[in-house]
Fold these 3 entries.
Entry 1:
Amino acid sequence: MPAAEILSAPLVLEYPFSRTVGPVQSAFLTGLREGVVLGVRAVDGRVVCPPMEYDPTTSDELTELVELGEMGTVATWSWEPEPRPNQPLDRPFAWALIRLDGADTGLLHAVDAGSPERMASGMRVRIHWKDERVGSITDIACFEPAEAA
Amino acid sequence: MRDVAVVAFAQSHHVRREQRRNEVEMLMPVLHQVKTDAGLDQSQIDFTCSGSTDYLAGAAFSFVMTLDGVGASPPISESHVEMDGAWALYEAWVKIQTGAADTALVYSYGKASPGSLRDVLSRQLDPYYVAPLWPDSVALAALQARACIEAGVTSVAEMAEIAARSRRSAADNPFAQLQGSDDPDVLLKEPEVASPLRRHDCPPVGDGAAAMILAAGDRARELVDRPAWIRGIDHRIEAHGLGVRDLTSSPSTRLAGERAGVGDAPVDVAELHAPFSHQEVLLRDALGLGDGVAVNPSGGPLAANPIMAAGLIRIGEAAARIRRGDARRALAHATSGPCLQQNLVCVLEGEA
Amino acid sequence: MSELLVLPPALRDVEPVRSIRTPARLEYTFRAGEATSRFLRGIASKRILGERCPVCGKVMLPPRGSCPTDGVPTGEQVELADRGIVTTFCVVNVKFSGSAMELPYVCASVLPDGADMGLFGLVQEIPFDQIRMGMRVEAVWVDDDELQPNLASIKWWRPTGEPDAPYESYREHV
């Protein structure tokens, strides 16, 4: 049968999904809603952000919250030339792993740099908060390049 | 430990879009071929295990329909992993180790063409902190590539050489989707598609299927002349959080390789499931492969990357070379998750 | 909240986040494959096409290109009658979202003459408490200008008035 005779139809898979969060995640997301960024201290002393409930190496329950700054350093980045639906920005932007001041691990988010020429590992960036926040990673609208301190 | 061997392997011709056939119609010729090659019908297969993901089809339990191509009546002992078929092979290998089976059919397939693969793969990410941002698989691989380049692990020039070598090797592979390549310096003139990755650094998207038959000990020797023995197999996973991992190395691959016995003797051939060019360097380093090892003579995932089947195909290609006498000791690797999060290593040898 | 977790002052008196909404939407273009396309195009011309298995000889309906028992391709097309037997049915008394049906109504598995598998459909034009297994029915198609390559082209099945089929004649298909 020629390919043209094969029937096709659009199919949409859509789920509402609502997820309960653990105590550490709750603290982090509540913090974002209130404009505060938290990390958690791992067993080896590293401060992990975004924070997790259990230590990634030892699996111990983690409980020591650490308040972090709103600025950070780009550890590595890539460029998104054609943003896809649901991504943080609808104009080209950079994805980056960002080590917030006080944290030892990277948080993945978007950097509204305008062009890839403005991006560099090691550059300083600052959180750009959404005006209305609900307690989600998207309360951070994106990061923006910040001038060196 | 029981000796387990690969006694048959088959794959489809991998294409960008399988326009005419559905998943079952695509799988059936591959399933029939391995059973014919092994001389077994379904009633002689003790265990069947498949690997695939329903998210490619957009329908829950869509994998069940592929059993229509297996012939599952009278009822069969069967299992499924929502993963690459390499992990279905691992489950079948474990089943044989327990003595509950002497023969197994393993198959996997991926028909990515109906949906948007980059969006689909974003659903496997951390649902709380990462998935709501919908980062696509190419962007995440690009993050890792830049980290590797800036750490001196690799360079865009080396990545272009890997891409060119892979697709030129694929000229001998009738099943590959992409065959042949321009010279690396021509490739490097192309624009970046997701800085620092260029198009040639990325795997093709396509549809394809693969199947394999495993057999234990003397059963394997009864079925075929030259079984490819699995001497070691292991898989390890790294932390879920991308920012917690060191993206410039692959400790899970190194550990899986040690446990699979990669270092016990020199390896002739390595089929590495490195969908992005920079990842081949990471895997070579983690497995301690020297220059004498032929990497991805099949062309590897840069020539054909049917999601959920590409890892099983690495094992199949390595086994095929052992069985043809083109290699004495081969290594096959499969990966799952963003930026080489989870890795399986398998070591194969011909009859002593 | 764990007692060990010490919140910073800014978060101590506010309502904590207990859950997040993470909707997911993925879009696909579903392609039906050869067997299903052939079947549905047949429906659009008021033909019910099954496929015969070369090994067991059974006629699959709706056909999907393979025999689930033998795992072989089923290319041979078999044109079936648009009349057959109710092999089993149920009386639906519960409304579910998206359904415009008046309650109660009857869903049935109908085995067209010549087929070894049935089609699901509605049974109408008979009081629901008179429907029984073995009842012979015929398809009621939509008007010709409303025919589409999908099973909604068969509006429902209605009794033909013929004598019921004996149980032995369809017991293997129940």
Entry 2:
Amino acid sequence: MADRNELTNSKPAESNQRPVSPAVDIFEDAGGITLLADMPGVSKERLDVKLDGDNLSVEGRVELDAPAEMRALWAEVNVPRFRRTFTLSRELDAGRIEANLKDGVLTLRVPKLAHAQPRRIEVTAA
Amino acid sequence: MLDTMLSRPQSLFDQLDAMQRLLSRSLGAEAVPGGIRSVAYGAFPEINVGRTPTNVEVFAFAPGIDASSLDVTIERNVLKISGMRASAIPARDAKVQLYANERPEGRFSRAVSLPDDVDPLKVEAKYRDGILRISIALSAAAQPQRIAVK
């Protein structure tokens, strides 16, 4: 039960505690890739979106504004940290990533480079 | 761990039984009866429940929901949370390629039994950063009281 109380008391997580991977939706259209990640309890201040080379990582810390004297009766969520890393491919324009966090859902839009936008290839009869 | 959970006063949440059943199944003790409202692990939204000297606090981890679509009711000490989560994925056509679809969507509903000593008329619900927090006051008789010594 000790680790459950940790979450409800919003104490900083132990660094050796493994973060949980958030559920995501990822889809691609002509203009780029959209990624949505469920990160309930993560506020803008506790969200970290980092780009290191081709690696895009999202990390967030869950904050419950629980009273200090609260003790846990039941906890299905007991990892106070989310983290997931994605590898971008070359045709994506990492410099123009847009991030938006609303109601615990992070939305990332990764546009494609202009030259990578789809174009129709004419098939000529031989 | 099972012992400490069972020894908690007012730990009447049916989900405890889910865990107990899980444990007992792995131990081969099928005779332990399960709560009628316990659900399989991984249901949406996930729920944490805590208790303070004056309140029972329920936290439902339900990101990306329009607060007006959330429906919270208490009837005969059963708290029910239901609502609708719209899909973020555009209509499938040849131009949209879907790679991952892990986020639950559509209608959802969960119910938990509350302890007997709550006051169902004193409830507050707030939705912030994707967490629905429901605070239910304990009935006056269940709250700590100071007794004056004459």
Entry 3:
Amino acid sequence: MEHALNELAPVAVEKVSYLWLIPLFPAVGALINSLFGIRIQRTLGKRAVHLIAIGMMALSFAVAVRAFLQLYALAPEERFLQQTLWQMLSADRLRFDLGFALDPLSMMMVLIITFIGTLIHVFSVGYMADEPSYWRFFAYLNLFVFAMLLLVMGDNFAVMFFGWEGVGLASYLLISFWYTDIEKAKAGMKAFVVNRFGDFGFILGLFLLFWTLGGVWEPRADVRSLTYHPEIGESAVPSATNPFESAAPKSVEKDGRVLRLGPTLNFRELRDQVVIESTGVAEHLKHQTVWGFALMAVVGILLFVGAMGKSAQLPLYVWLPDAMAGPTPVSALIHAATMVTAGVYMVARLSYLYALSPTAMGWVATIGALTAFFSASIGFFQYDIKKVLAYSTVSQLGFMFIGVGVGAFWAGSYHLLTHAFFKACLFLGSGSVILGCHHEQDMRKMGGLKKHMPVTAGTYLVACWAIAGFPWAAGFYSKDEILWKAFSARDLAFLGHSAPWLGPAIYVLGILAATGTSFYMFRSYYMTFTGSYRGGEGHVEEHDEDPHAAHAAPHHATPAHPQDNVDPNGATQAVHAAPHAAHAVHAPHAAQDDHGAHGKADHGHGHHGVVPHESPLSITVVLVVLAAGSVLAGLLGIPTLWSHTEPALERWLAPSLPAEVHFAEFPHATEWLFQCMGVAAAAVGWFFARLLFKDGKSPVPAQLKKRFFGFWTVVYNKYYVDEAYHALVVRPALFLARFFFWFDQHVIDWIVNFVAWLGRLVANIDGAIDTYVVDGAVNAVAGVTNEAGRALRRIETGRITTYLYGLTLGSLLVILLNFLFR
Amino acid sequence: MAHVTLSHFLVVAGLLFVLGLLTVLTRRNAVAILMGVELLLNSANLNLVAFNHYVVGGIGGQAFALFVIVLAAAEAAVGLAIVLSIFHTFKTIDVRAADLMRE
């Protein structure tokens, strides 16, 4: 990590025109399957659905490989492929494009996503075979991959943020895939809501970052002089050398490459501006404060809050264990291998910003270490195999954050890579087990599965080696590097104070967490795969009329787990289990002939409680590939100590991670010692797990549980964090919601109703005026006319005499008047 | 024997007029009404002649009177024809019956 910041030139950019194909293929797949999937499935069958989805993934992977080959052929510091599709927005001097970029870091991510994504799509073919809305599942999976690729390939914050939200959406859709089960729908909502908290921090961080960068982007006299310092631009652009031409775009030229100075959302441009000291951006950022706090620390912490949500760190990890409600391939793809690592990727991507603030780094590393330790301890006592893996994922993510937090960005990214392999393998192994045990997830009802599913058992064991950190699998290399760097980190600061003790403290937490990891992973292995099969009994328990009910496993006294008896189709499996229960208990092996029936997919659920069976080929092949990856990925990170050369991945990633972080120097002997300690930690965990859980015979776990029952209960219930959240966040929120509902009902509605009443009153008055005054006048005219006509009609007798009288009287009157008014 | 003056003529004419008017207004018989009309016309004639004799001189008044007599004759002819027509229609010459215009 000896890359001096100011020695770097602007990154060379290789323009290519095919990058957009990588995210396009999954997007097309998602589009086809979501629009026409149901029709395709009805007319052409499930085969067509998964062929489309997998085909798109494979094409995407092929393009990614093509990109990798091109990238690999370039000189290390020129490895940067870029493509801009079109400009999305332009505001004054700021503009951002729909642009994709691949540098070594995002290339690694893209390869992981497309490769493991393709494998998991293949796995899903076997796992989801019985699913009626098969097309929906594959459409969602493709949508997720599309969003994830946007996240890692976006060359600016905006595209990254689209992806960031897109994966959140896909995660929500997939967790609550079986949405008819209210618990699963709730889990999806929880994931979404918790992630909103994180995203709120993330976006605040972005706003703050650009607020402060606005200061440096303003045309200022000193910055201009700094920018065009003769030392930098030997052949600076003529217009730029003129200090009076402030309107001209500022730029720095070095090694013949021009760096545009000015507002940018682009990672590469921002990186160059920060990394090249002469621009003054880094200096500006370092000394900026906001409300008395160092700005970069605040920005780093806020951005990390986003990572906390997405990557399930304390205290926002609570959604991840619940996310296990989704189908197992989803857990493997999204909640282990890819999406949850987005936070790690983000921190590594912005390593040049984090390197400016030791406080932010210390914060990231501390949270990572606490999370690693805390969730490892919860993993100890879980019985649901997927929950164990979920907590182990949270814990491993903690390790990654230790890595990126202490400045070993490449080590964090490396752990991301190895974890993607071994955790995908573990999850898919557990999926295979769950499928084999007919959607049973409780490890107490498993055991002895090694006989029935040898491939699954073997691959699971390999992945356990990897996660525990035995040197013959990949996990050792990444974890050991992280812990070693944590121990030797000296640059960290704790809340603004320099804290050289923080690194060793994180190391202690990390090594304890590693021991715990080894313990609970081997516990899950031994509980699941060794001893004798304890399935069947669990179902018998539910039928009191069955004479075998008394044989229920001793563990059943423990509180029932909410995830027990998960059945994706919501079928009443207990009912189906009844006729087979006695059969299963008496002759587990005799049930072999049932395998044929299981082969026919629609029959699968009719045979609960019978002997588990190995999964179909589409599953086992994927497991083997992933297990191989879990071992071979170690080759990328052979420590310098062994090979006297930098690990391959470190060299590969170096151009992407330009931050300069200092580590203390120690003699080789110390480093050897620490490696031995890492192996020892794994061995200790394995030893105790074997002692206590091998073959499920040891009575010690039960005794220990009885002895420390209070402690056990607290940890088993995950330290009551969910309950605490419920009391501190959910209930106040609900109370507030109810208050606002009341307020709305009583105050707002009252005002609205009052206004309405007032309107009605005015309208009534108006109506009355209309009825009685206006219409009255009109009617009165008509009435008077009518009445007058009626009255005058009597005069008109039709008799000549009458008229003559009238004539006479009139004449007399005229004569009289003539006399009177002469 | 007092000298006959204009006033005597006027009084007689006035009396005749009133009598004619009353006849016209009160009688129901259509022929009687026509007779009343004759009285009215003749009272007017008397006035014409008297004024001509006492005030104007010449024969203008007498000429007018002659015209009125001719007119009265024509009127009587037309009036009697109408009365006949009424009788045809209503089988009576009571003017009260002839009230068709009322409707």
